[in-house]
Amino acid sequence: MTFQVYDTTLRDGAQREGVSYSVVDKLAVARLLDEFGVGFIEGGWPGAVPKDTEFFRRARTELDLKHAVLVAFGATRRAGAVAADDPQVRGLLDAQTPAIALVAKADLRHVERALRTTAKENLAMIHDTVTHLVAEGRRVFVDGEHFYDGYRHDPAYTASVVETALAAGAERFVLCDTNGGMLPSWVTAAISDLTDRIGVAPEVLGMHAQNDTGCAVANTIAAVEAGVRHVQGTANGYGERPGNADIFAVAANLQLKLGLPVLPEGCLEQMVRVSHAIAEIANIAPDTHQAYAGAAAFAHKAGLHASAIKVDPLLYNHVEPAVVGNDMRILVTEMAGRASIELKSRELGLDLAGHPETLSRVTNRVKELEAGGWSFEAADASFELLVRSELPDAAPARPFALESYRVLVEHREDGAVVSEATVKIRVRGERVIATAEGNGPVNALDEALRVGLGRHYPELRNFELADYKVRILEGSHGTGAVTRVLVETADGRGGGWMTVGVHPNVVEASWHALVDALTYGLDRARV
After folding, report:
1. Both ends of the chain: CA-CA distance in Å?
2. Per-residue exposure over 219-253, b if at least 16 CB sit within 10 Å of its own CB, e if not
3. Which of 156, 206, 329, 418 is least surrounded, with the fewest CB atoms within 10 Å of its CB?
4. Neighbouring C-beta atoms of residue 196, cutoff 10 Å
5. pLDDT per residue over 248-303, tens digit each?
6. CB–CB of 268/43 below 8 Å?
7. Could you read off the pLDDT of 60-109 as tens digits, one per residue?
8. Do residues 101 and 45 lie in contact, with contact meaning Cβ atoms separated by under 8 Å?
9. What DSSP character marks residue 260?
């Protein structure tokens, strides 16, 4: 039976706190998920949510899906009604999708207390709705809401829900861990017991896991190992409460660990790009420590690791990063040894293997600076400048020499706060004095430096301060604490770099980071 990867980012994932997709957003996310190769994209609840109704209407002409089938989501008919006459069921058909997902109560307690109907009527609602939709030519998936909790409470009734849906023509019955409270061994035991009880093959079952125990991905893999051949998840694990099973981790584990070709050829390596693009649309910063797709997923910090990676990267990478569209990174920290420094330098295009004395100097310098609070873990540009300053043939040209700078902050009578900075620098033999205002002392200093350098370096107009972070270092307290500043600079062409500065004075720390940012950017612009 064909394996099915079913994505519900646009419906279940949209229930994450703080996420609100527009129709245009939903169309963009659907295209990205199709590029990742999922087999089904659940688009929302037409008829119940106006935005979702509009999405399905526009999708008919605006989406050209190459891999995925679009799915409309809804519920079984109301108690005491007829599916053919139920407006909500009619809304599902009006969405004109090839497939429909129905949520059905699989826990007797929810049937009696939430639906306020009888066990018998709930089964009739499932049978009537599924047969009606199948007769209308739709593929039907039934999501058994609260299946696992219901099965633990009353296995006979919950099993009858599964039997009813499959007998009515459902393509898959999806076992939902709606409360997210299951553990992998519990999932395996429930599936084994269910298939023995009703005599069905596990291939006709699906798995939908919430992440309340932190086991959503593990529970999904456990279900597959128990024979299930339909898995549901969301991009980056988005969803209500702690979220859903991350469809990226699920697909990667199935394909790379279990050897199941669940995605079309060439799609798995789109993971990082698609993951980050969807995060951007959701207005959520990508999780740097996300499995497979995170920037830190293949980042190595310890010097011992780096020594082994020099011999063979797979000694410390569980898979080749490129297979999911990621890269290996070596982090330079106080834990770094010579191997870490050598590998990181090579990553930046600087070969220190043939310069053992330089490698020793750089390693000792990094450890010395890290002891003083500097961190090059995220500041590749500052690290590259440090390494190159030790290489005679690669030392960066400093664009100016500082004579002095001054920053003033004025709180005026009307409540306005104005920052003004003056820099005195020497640029190509010329003494330059420049003054500028800003919305803060660092912004004013940055503006003044740009004014002073602008005539000599017109390419500065393309540089933009994209992000600015200040951190109080551990072990230092109060207003006199040592601060670390990270500056992110964008070049206007989609590229960027990070620099760092450390000092008890936050303005001086910022100055170090700003100078490195401009030096690095100007040097790179000349290449």
Report:
1. 55
2. bbbbbbebbbbbbbbbbbbbbbeebbbbbbbbbbb
3. 156
4. 9
5. 999 999 999 999 999 999 999 999 999 988 998 898 888 989 999 997 788 766 54
6. no
7. 999 999 999 999 999 999 999 999 999 999 999 999 999 999 999 999 99
8. no
9. -
